[in-house]
Structure prediction request, 375 residues.
Amino acid sequence: MLLMLVTACSAAIPGNPSASTAGTSINPGSYNTAPRPVLPPNDAQRLVLAANYLGERILSAPDVDPSLTRSAGYLGPLMSADNAAPISNSAPILRRNGYRYGYKSVRQTGDYSEMMSTQLFQTDTPDHAKSLADDLRTADSGVRVGDSADRRVPITDTTIPGAGSRSLVAISSVGSTVAYITAFARTTGRAQELVGKAIDLQVDRLGGYHAPEGELATMLTADRDQIVSYTVQNQTPSEYGFYAEYGYRSARIQALDEPDTVAASSTFDRTGVDLVGMGINTVYRARTTSDADALRDFLAGQVRLNGALIRKRFSVDQVPGSVCHVYRLGETASAILMTTCFVSRGRYVSAVEAPQTDQAHQITAAAYLILGEAR
Prediction:
C-alpha cells in the first residue's frame, strides 16, 4: 500500500499548470527551459544538505533481506523533532537531547507481510546521543527479548496488543548519531532476526561518520556537476522556501526511493547511474545515451508498482522519447489519479509526477529543452 503522495522517483506537484497553447510546438508552460542557476544554500537549506549527508549512511533494507525491496513510505530528511518523533509524544525527548535533523527510510515486502523503518537522528553531542537512545528505550516501554548478534544492541518487543504483526525495536547511539530501527513481521522470531541484523549493519555504516561542522559544513553545496541546474525549478516553494527533497543524491540513496530497490540498484549499476538531482522533477545521470534510454524504459515500467494503470504509455506532444502513464493512487474508484512522465535526452533522464496531466506534460517539455543543453 502506498503511504505517500510522493513516488519513488519524483515529487507530486501542487498548483495548476499554465493554459495549454494551441498548435504543435513544444509547450513547457511557464517553466524554465534552460539550465538554471542554483543559489548558495541559506542556513535552513544547509541543514537539509547536512541531513542528506547523514542519509548517505543509512542502511539499505534489502541488505538485511532482499525481500524488503518495495516502497513503504517517506525517504528523506527529517527537519524537525515533530516529524522525526518515532513514537507518540516523543518529540520533546528529541528536543531536550539536542536533536538537529535526521533521515528516514521505510521499505516492505511485496506481499506487505514485513516492513522495516530506519531512522537516523543527529544530535549536537555524543552525550546527547547516548541519553536520547536511553530515553527512547524507556519511552518505548518494550519488553527486552534479546540482543543483536554482533553489536549486542538490546532488542525490545513493542507490539501493540491485538496488532496483526509483531513490531520489534533496536536503538543504538554511534558518536553523536542515534539509529532507531523498527521491524514488523508476522512472528516475534522473524522480527527479531530482521531488526537484529539491521541494527548491526547500521552501526557499522555509521562507523567513522562525523556530522558536517566547520570547514566540512562549508563544503556542502546545493549542486554537484550541475545536476541540479538541469532540473526544472519549483514555482511553488514550501513554507521554508524549498522542498525537503533538495540538492542531489547518490544512486544508492535514490534506489531506496524507487518502487523496487533491488531492481533499481541493478538497473542503476547496469546503466551507470551515479548522480541524481532534485527539483520539481528528478534528473538522473546515466553513462551513455543508450543507457539513459534503457533507464527511462525501466523507470516507466516501474509505475505499475505504484497503483493500477488507468492510461498506459502515451507521449508528450513534440517531446521525442517521452513516456507517460496515469495511475490510480489507491484501490477505490474515487482515489486520486496521478500522471507520471519520463524523457531521456543525451545521458540524462527526467522523471516527474503531478496530479494534472497537462502539468506533467509541461514539466517534461521543459525538462527536454533543459537537457538539450546538458553536458
